Amino acid sequence: MEQNLTFDQLPKAVTMLTKEVSDLKRLLIEKQVQTPTEQPEQLLTVQEAAQFLNLTVPTIYSKVSKGELPVMKRSKRLYFSNIELIDYLKEGRKKSNAEIVQEAEAYLSNNKKRLQ
Fold first, then answer.
1. Taking the CA atoms of the chain, what radius of gyration do you get in angstroms?
2. pLDDT tens for residues 56-73?
3. Helix-turn-helix domain: from which residue to which, for each copy (predicted)?
4. May I ask the CATH class of domain 41-116?
5. pTM given for the model
């Protein structure tokens, strides 16, 4: 849009800006509708958890007995939250070399400020 507007051009410029804002608002609303909502928590059986994690059932029982997997127990049955299992998987994520370098640089820059 032109920056050197005359007074006579002002109504047209305001109309154009209003239309652009309206279009942006419509696009944002469409984007919100298209984004998938979070999946609800589901409780999984031992067999379903094994399939979810791509492990065998005996491995699931072994990890539960070692306290490695988040689990809920009701009477003799075990239940696993799909959300907690996803968090469990994310805990095992290893950082890339770039992330490690970035953290080291941030740490060093913060400590240099303290020492001065």
1. 27
2. 999 999 999 999 999 999
3. 43-92
4. mainly alpha
5. 0.53
